[in-house]
UniProtKB/TrEMBL annotation, chain A:
Keywords: Cell membrane, Membrane, Transmembrane, Transmembrane helix, Transport
Native species: Pseudomonas segetis
Lineage, opening ranks: Bacteria, Pseudomonadati, Pseudomonadota, Gammaproteobacteria, Pseudomonadales
Name the UniProt record assigns to this protein: Putative spermidine/putrescine transport system permease protein
PANTHER family on file: ABC TRANSPORTER PERMEASE PROTEIN (PTHR42929:SF5), INNER MEMBRANE ABC TRANSPORTER PERMEASE PROTEIN YDCU-RELATED-RELATED (PTHR42929)
Xref: CDD domains: TM_PBP2
Gene Ontology CC terms: plasma membrane
Transmembrane segments: 21-47, 196-218, 227-253, 273-299, 325-350, 379-398
Nuclease is among the record's keywords: no
UniProt cross-references to PROSITE patterns, sorted A to Z: ABC_TM1 (PS50928)
TrEMBL record, chain B:
Keyword Cell membrane: no
Stated name of the protein: Putative spermidine/putrescine transport system substrate-binding protein
Keyword match Signal: yes
SUPFAM superfamilies: Periplasmic binding protein-like II (SSF53850)
UniProt keyword terms in alphabetical order: Signal
């Protein structure tokens, strides 16, 4: 460096910088794409799962008044009065429906109560509203006298809440007993464990099927291997829905497989295969198998066959030699394949729904339900965030015990 | 090289931006209408969309969705309105409207019926009862069987749907609590008029799930009405639930030997609504006024959906008349949109819990 003059050094540095900027420019589209389609949605999901200001924005004064409430009896006349005035305002701005939905979420059955009460309260004007508001409220529906309803409203009024995470874990918060197991419905933990079990089974099956095939492919001449690889990739060129529907045609009661089995006389009664977990596992293993084969194959291709020959010529038996020499060298490919298959199948949605019948309910289906039908995006976000956390946890465990550094995709 | 590349990129970006801008300019004369696709969508295209395009010169982008308010909510909340007019199920309408996702539609945009009856009197009351939408069809959830696969004993009542001793074989239902819970109660002997009252109680819900339990292992679940005729056709199920129009279309167009059982059917309306904040609100109103005239509505009888205007009846194909839900109202119940606004979410969770058991 000492032989360079300062000008030369500066020139070199600026040339370097230019190069770096050019290189960066190449990456910018991808970076923007990832930020927009990956980082931003995940961030907004995490944010939405804890931030829920709707109720606080709709009835700020009522919540303010509820702060002094002891939680033992119906809130005092003054608080009810404030709520009546706010409800009247909301009804006029056509926002009472929003409040109805929020209350209904906190306390089932409130949607129609809020709407009908809002209609009655909206008729009151001026002094009447101030004098008779509370009474109109209580007359409109006996539910307004329930203490647990007001507690639920108070909870729903929190801008930042972990309630959705509690629900996602089948828990709930009660005024007197604290956090306890949810009384009404308990589904989410079951769904998580079911989803993970299915994913695990599918991953193991893919490994069991993919490993020998990749081994066989890796031992062939390049031309033949490429030809056979095309066959492995072929399903990728077919739409996912078509592949799934093809399984329906194969597995259904009067489908190809049953007709064949009955035709050759192996069985008299058709087997129930479609709309069971069996169908889900078979169809998903088929769909995800290439994700296992490709990394395995590329890793196996790179393994010098002379290692195995050396082990054998040094007197090791074939099976121990395979276990000690070959298998450890293929682990990076196996890990990569297993991780890909596992993570994809955890989020799988269409195939279980189409071929799995009653058993085809996975955690992703219930997330979709909360997104599309019940409109409870906050709960959907909490469920999604938990799923993400779960996967990260599994990945961390995997990294600790197997080591993520040895993953090799090709 | 680097310079020419970055110039290239910025030129491309500029071109893309201009392309988007010109799209925006073009969008002025087009209208996005969203409905359910399938045979119903085809009938709407024939009788509403195509004539409207021809008469007004407005280009209509006709798209499909599968119901629910999620997409509408996303568009209104983000302020990025892609849809203008949407065909909404009344079960969702109640909610979408009160949450402020839809525009209020003034009734004075509606022309008088073909026979001169003023719109307010011409429409059936339910069609105009919601301020955010104009009723478009009366449709119904029914079940049907295939003459070829049913065997000797035919199904006639809603109780038969739950009677696997009488009619053995699979039943296909849409995977959701709506309608299925009502059917379970009616099959269990609850009077149709009391169904929603009973279903609002925990005991009633338990009763419905118990009844569903009796056929649980025989149920094939599907997610879209369009899957239903296929299941009935290829023998995937013996008794299949669907919208009446889906079956009627298969019977009429493909000559399938399907028989619809009307007992205990749950009927509902579909309505045209306009998304809140649509930049083409006036054009959207114009479309709705056009599409809900007597003649286009009469065309919906192609798929056996009843018209919401009385003046449409004489214009309909008389062959379709016995297949319309309106001809069987006494055997069915009106879907409880208010009930499902209250219990949709909690019963949805319970239903999923029941599925997992």
């Amino acid at each position: 460096m000492s032989s360079l003059t300062t000008t030369e050094a500066r020139q070199a540095a600026s040339a370097q910088r230019k190069k770096r900027i050019t290189a960066f420019m190449f990456v910018v589209p991808l970076l923007v794409f990832i930020l927009l389609t990956f980082v931003a949605p995940i961030a907004s999901m995490l944010w939405r799962s804890v931030h829920h200001p709707t109720v606080a924005e709709l009835i700020p004064h009522t919540l303010e008044a509820l702060k002094d409430w002891d939680g033992k009896a119906v809130p005092d006349q003054h608080t009810l009065q404030i709520f009546a005035v706010e409800l009247n305002g909301l009804a006029k701005e056509r926002l009472s429906g929003k409040l109805a939905e929020e209350f209904n979420r906190a306390y089932t059955g409130m949607s129609s109560v809020v709407k009908s009460t809002a209609r009655k309260v909206a008729k009151l004007k001026g002094d009447d509203l101030r004098d008779k508001g509370a009474q109109t409220l209580l007359d409109a529906n006996p539910k307004w006298q329930r203490t647990d309803l007001w507690y639920a409203i108070q909870r729903a009024g929190e801008k930042y809440t972990y309630d959705y995470y509690l629900t996602a874990l089948d828990l709930e918060l009660k005024p007197d007993t604290g956090i306890q197991v949810r009384e009404e419905t308990q589904i989410y933990l079951q769904l998580y464990s079911k989803t993970l079990t299915m994913a695990l089974v599918i991953t193991l099956l893919c490994a069991a099927l993919g490993y020998p095939l990749s081994y066989y492919l890796a031992g062939l001449s390049e031309n033949r291997a490429n030809l056979l690889l095309v066959l492995v990739l072929l399903p990728f060129w077919t739409s996912l829905l078509v592949r799934t529907t093809a399984w329906i045609a194969l597995l259904q009661t009067n489908g190809v497989i049953n007709s064949f089995l009955m035709g050759v006389g192996l069985t008299n009664e058709p087997f129930e295969m479609l709309y069971t977990s069996f169908a889900t596992v078979v169809a998903m293993t088929h769909i995800l198998l290439p994700f296992m084969i490709l990394p395995l194959y590329s890793v196996m291709r790179g393994i010098d066959p002379s290692y195995m020959r050396a082990a054998l010529s040094l007197g090791d038996k074939p099976i121990p030699a395979f276990a000690k020499i070959y298998l450890p060298m293929t682990l990076p490919g196996l890990s990569a394949g297993a991780l890909l298959v596992f993570i994809i199948s955890v989020g799988y949605y269409i195939t279980p729904a189409l071929v799995g019948g009653t058993d085809g309910q996975m955690i992703s289906n219930i997330i979709a339900f909360h997104m599309q039908r019940s409109n409870n995006w906050e709960l959907a976000a909490a469920l999604g965030s938990l799923l993400l956390a779960l996967i990260l946890l599994l990945y961390w465990l995997y990294d600790r015990f197997v080591g993520a550094s040895n993953i090799k995709l090709g | 090289m680097a310079r020419s590349l970055s110039t290239g990129i910025s030129a491309f970006a500029l071109a893309a931006a201009m392309g988007l801008a010109s799209l925006g300019a073009h969008a002025e004369e087009s209208l996005t209408v969203v409905s359910w696709g399938g045979s119903y969508g085809a009938a709407q295209k024939n009788h509403m969309i195509d004539p409207f395009q021809k008469d007004t010169g407005v280009k209509v982008l006709f798209e499909d969705y599968s119901g629910g308010v999620a997409e509408m909510k996303a568009q209104v909340e983000s302020g990025n309105i892609q849809w203008d007019v949407v065909d909404v199920e009344v079960i969702d309408l109640e909610r979408a409207c009160s949450e402020g996702l839809l525009e209020t539609i003034p009734h004075d945009i509606l022309p008088a019926g073909a026979d001169g009856t003023p719109a307010e009197k011409d429409f059936i009351p339910d069609a105009l009862s919601n301020e955010c939408a104009i009723g478009n069809i009366v449709w119904s959830v029914v079940y049907a069987y295939n003459e070829k696969t049913i065997g000797n004993t035919k199904a006639t009542s809603i109780a038969d749907f739950f009677d696997t001793a009488k009619i053995p074989g699979k039943r296909a239902m849409r995977k959701r609590p709506q309608v299925n819970m009502e059917w379970a109660l009616m099959a269990d002997g609850v009077a149709p008029k009391d169904v929603y009252e009973v279903l609002a109680t925990p005991e009633g819900q338990e009763r419905a799930f118990k009844k569903l339990d009796t056929i649980k292992k025989d149920i094939v679940w599907f997610d879209s009405w369009s899957q239903a005729p296929q299941l009935l056709n290829d023998g995937g199920a013996v008794l299949v639930q669907s919208a009446n129009g889906r079956f009627y279309d298969s019977i009429r167009k493909e000559g399938k030997p399907f028989v619809i059982v009307w007992d205990g059917h749950v009927y509902d309306l579909d309505a045209w609504a306009v998304l809140k904040g649509s930049p083409k609100k006036d054009l959207a109103f114009k479309f709705i006024a056009y599409a809900t005239q007597s003649k286009p509505l009469a065309g919906m009888s192609d798929v056996a959906y009843g018209p919401t205007r009385k003046s449409s009846t004489p214009m309909m194909d008389p062959a379709a008349a016995p297949h319309l839900p309106t001809a069987h109202l006494d055997k069915g119940i009106r879907a409880g949109s208010e009930f499902w606004a209250d219990y949709g979410e909690s019963l949805g969770e319970k239903f999923n819990e029941w599925l997992l058991k």
